[in-house]
Amino acid sequence: xxxxxxxxxxxxxxxxxxxxxxxxxxxxxxxxxxxxxxxxxxxxxxxxxxxxxxxxxxxxxxxxxxxxxxxxxxxxxxxxxxxxxxxxxxxxxxxxxxxxxxxxxxxxxxxxxxxxxxxxxxxxxxxxxxxxxxxxxxxxxxxxxxxxxxxxxxxxxxxxxxxxxxxxxxxxxxxxxxxxxxxxxxxxxxxxxxxxxxxxxxxxxxxxxxxxxxxxxxxxxxxxxxxxxxxx
Length: 232
What we know:
By secondary structure, this protein is an alpha+beta fold. It has helices at residues 11-18, 136-147, 211-224, and strands at 34-36, 42-44, 79-87, 91-99, 103-105, 112-116, 123-127, 157-164, 169-176, 183-191, 198-207, 226-230. It contains 3 helices and 12 strands, in the order H-E-E-E-E-E-E-E-H-E-E-E-E-H-E. A hairpin with a 3-residue loop joins strand 3 and strand 4 (91-99). The two termini are 17 Å apart. Mean pLDDT is 81; it is low at 1-51.
């Protein structure tokens, strides 16, 4: 795998993607006070525990309405390898396995791709095209810090933070209410070479009853993803 450059996303770009709720990120106030350390054990949550209130007015959390859609079942999913190009500071060709009948879309600029299920209620988003310098744990901490400044109404709740040195990943799991539906989201930062620095950022999203399938989709993507860079 060829890699071009050695610097990860700047905080400005992270803020833009953070506020893009359609991309799979929750917008809300952090409510968890427990994290996981590199061994998966409970540890104090530092970056995620705000020391000052948000700058925007505090709004009451939304009350989610139940979505009675049948759950997405992990055992019913079949996968195929898909490819796309992502462009930001470099041009990356990304391949990975995603559910075979999920539709791919890309924004403008094309720095990521999103694969969405036929109902439009579940998806996985993959970002590349950035240069590479930051380890997964630092990328996760930066995302959590940015969450401090967003509104309270979406009732974001951190469920877990995990750093896996062996797999070279960091994973943030949370729920939030972007409209009137409770969403379950898992964001993962993955290093793909010996540098140990993030090469792809992925988020898998679904309904509360889809948790096992959302996890399975992200795991398939993590174990199959590749990234090859070229000049712009």
